[in-house]
Design brief:
- The protein is of the alpha/beta class and 271 residues long.
- The protein folds into two domains: 152 residues, 3-Layer(aba) Sandwich (Rossmann fold), CATH 3.40.50; 112 residues, Rossmann fold, CATH 3.40.50.1860.
- It contains twelve helices and ten strands.
- Strands 4-3-1-2-9-10 form a six-stranded parallel sheet, sandwiched between helices. Strands 6-5-7-8 form a four-stranded parallel sheet, with helices on both faces.
- α5 crosses α11 and α9 crosses α10.
- The longest helix has 17 residues.
- The protein starts with 11 loop residues before the first strand and ends with a strand.
Length: 271
């Protein structure tokens, strides 16, 4: 599909394995306030991190086809696991541009670092995929990347313990070995982690730059839409729709914490 044939009024599609990608949606709401956005959370099949590449790729295909049926003008893979292992499957299927959080975070880290020492924190699945070191070293092979899985961060964020002493002590333990490598840049390699930024900043101090893929991908999206004349010209209220494959009791509570506002227009998708 040629970008010139796409209607600028069409929505941006954002998808994630569950709730975490709402931090990306929030960044888009703030950075592109006039754009229509559709968010898809595969809440019935989360977490993806314990599943095989084949299974994740199948889920990615299904979600991509659904969002394409909604006539999106751009796809954003907000799930770090999916972006790590199934990005090319999605890109091959999609006639519209596809952005992934891994590449967005990697390119921002490369632009930010001065001493070529970059840390990455993420879920065990994302860290185990080595997607971030590969992406960073594709931009600059001289950069040394130090990765640290942080499996407790996601449940702590979903519990709402964003500035709890337990979360702070956990962060100090996780970050100690990464900081010891002398990094000057840290990639937040999970969409839950931006909610921990104030606390992480206190633990790390001001010398280490924090890379939030949500902000990076919003900047990339704005640049592409402007370049291809796809920015929505109608400056009325945009439509934000949310699709989920299951409606767990805590989805609305956690989602509103992620967005910092009421979560409405949530629709259930039955495959």
């Amino acid at each position: 599909m040629n970008p010139m044939q796409v209607n600028p009024e069409n929505p941006i599609g954002v998808f994630d394995s569950g709730i975490g990608g709402l931090t990306v949606a929030k960044a888009l709401f703030e950075g592109l306030p006039f754009e229509n956005i559709i968010y898809f959370g595969d809440t019935a099949r989360v977490p993806y991190g314990v599943k095989s590449v084949k299974t994740i790729s199948l889920y990615a295909q299904q979600i991509t086809q659904f969002l394409l049926s909604q006539e999106v003008k751009l796809l954003i893979v907000a799930c770090n696991t999916m972006s790590s292992v199934a990005y090319h499957v999605i890109a091959d299927l999609s006639p519209v541009p596809v952005f992934g959080v891994v590449d967005a975070g990697a390119s921002s880290a490369v632009a930010q670092t001065n001493n070529k020492r970059v840390g990455v924190i993420g879920t065990p699945a994302t860290i185990g995929s080595k997607a971030y070191p590969r992406a960073i070293n594709e931009y600059d092979p001289e950069i040394r990347v130090f990765s640290q899985p942080c499996p407790l961060f996601v449940p702590l964020v979903e519990e709402g313990w964003l500035d709890h002493q337990v979360t702070r002590l956990t962060a100090e333990e996780y970050l100690k070995p990464v900081v010891a490598f002398g990094i000057d840049t840290l990639v937040l390699g999970c969409t839950h982690y931006p909610l921990l930024k104030p606390m992480l900043r206190e633990v790390l101090g001001d010398e280490i730059a924090l890379i939030d893929s949500a902000q990076s991908i919003t900047e990339q999206t704005a640049q592409l839409l402007k370049r291809d004349n796809l920015l929505r010209e109608h400056h009325g209220l945009p439509e934000h729709r949310f699709f989920v494959t299951d409606f767990p009791i805590k989805f609305q509570e956690i989602g509103e914490r992620f967005l910092g506002r009421a979560l409405s227009n949530v629709e259930l998708v039955n495959w």
